[in-house]
Amino acid sequence: MSHVVFVLVPGVHLLDLAGPAQVFSMAGDFGQPYRLSYVADQEEVCSAQGLPLAAHTQWPELNADDLVVVPGWRASTLRGGPELSRSVLERLRAHHTAGGAVASVCAGAEALGRAGLLDGRRCTTHHHLQDELAARHPRAIVVRDVLFTTDDRVVTSAGIASGIDLALHLLAVRHGPALAAQVARDMVVYARRNGHEPQASAMLRHRSHLDDAVHRAQDLIDARFAEPLPLAYVAASVGVSERTLTRMFHRATGGLTPLRYQQTLRVERAEHLIGHGTTVEAAAREVGFQDVRMLRRLRSRAPSEATG
User: Fold this and answer.
1) How many domains does the chain have?
2) Which candidate among 158, 174, 247, 279 keeps its CA 20 to 30 Å from the CA of 110?
3) Which tens digit of pLDDT belongs to each residue from 258-289?
4) Which helix (H) or strand (E) holds 248?
5) Which pLDDT score, from 0 to 100, does residue 189 have?
6) Is the pLDDT of residue 193 over 60?
């Protein structure tokens, strides 16, 4: 049994903590039990969502097989985050020096940075905090717009839910991808994502507008992007003409047509499948391309061309 220790700071985000904790807890249901502990500088920590959390003030004995995780916390800037005690930073450094792994979710990367563990290493954090992390820790190699990074037993992940991806990745590395897939399935996680996948999927990147009709059209395309969706059908579903929908869609999404949006979703899903070992031909069929050459053409385009 391995030990996973979560370091709790005031204002900790519940999902930053609960997502990875759930992953490691459920691993025991498939024969790989983990012991979970929660430590802090005080016996009770209030989460960002107002739920008080109990913690131990004494750290357990750890060895090189164990993992220390720093979940993120609520703060508009890293500078404005909670105080991190010297003892916590020393513990993080000591565990890594002894051969152990340390990990962070979202703003938790700041703790690793203050401990000196990001110097010369690849790392990431929430996309809103990446520039500040790079400025505060200039020796760190901040990788932008990825879900997680691993570098010399230092593992960092992006915002909130990406902590689940990080934990599933660590299970896959240690116990094989089958266990990670079993845990993901039981957690009803849509798919185990690779670290290099973007933090914001196409379903999120083009949703910052306020046009209800376009949102309804996107809802339909999101749910059925692998199916043939004639423009006339999509337009009728949201109660506008084809020409009106095209014009509204183009304006709301920054230049996309409904077809281009559908193709973007297909290519993004195909890239995910290929990254997990699916052949290009099988991925093309899975996402609805009748001709694999169309997928190859779209993949070969520059990002701005493939999605514009």
Assistant:
1) 2
2) 174
3) 999 999 999 988 887 887 788 999 999 999 99
4) helix 242-253
5) 80
6) no
Residue 202 has pLDDT above 70, yes or no: no
Same domain for 100 and 246, yes or no, is no
CATH of residue 285's domain is 1.10.10.60
Does residue 140 contact residue 119 with C-beta atoms inside 8 Å? yes
Q: What is the pLDDT of residues 9-41, one digit of tens each?
A: 999 999 999 999 999 999 999 999 999 999 999
Q: Nearest 10 degrees: CA dihedral of 275, 281, 285, 289?
A: 100
First to last CA, the chain: 50
Domain that holds residue 289: 202-307
Q: How far apart are CA 212 and CA 247, in angstroms?
A: 14
Q: Which of 124, 152, 186 is the last residue of a domain?
A: 186
Q: Are residues 165 and 288 in the same domain?
A: no
Q: What percentage of the chain reaches a pLDDT higher than 70?
A: 92
Bridge partner residues of 34 (DSSP): 2
Residues 229 and 154 in one domain: no
**DSSP per residue over 168-202, as a string?**
HHHHHHHH-HHHHHHHHHHTT-S-PPPTTS-SS-H
Q: Verify that 39 and 162 share a domain, yes or no.
A: yes
15 within 8 A of 160, measured Cβ to Cβ: yes
Residue 150 falls within a domain, yes or no? Answer: yes
Residues 139 and 258 in one domain: no
Of these residues, 7, 102, 103, 106, which one is catalytic? 106
Q: Count the Cβ atoms, other than its own, within 10 Å of residue 123.
A: 28
- Domain with residue 166: its CATH number is 3.40.50.880
- Per-position b or e across 221-243, b if 16+ CB within 10 A of its CB: bbeebbeebebeebbebbebeee
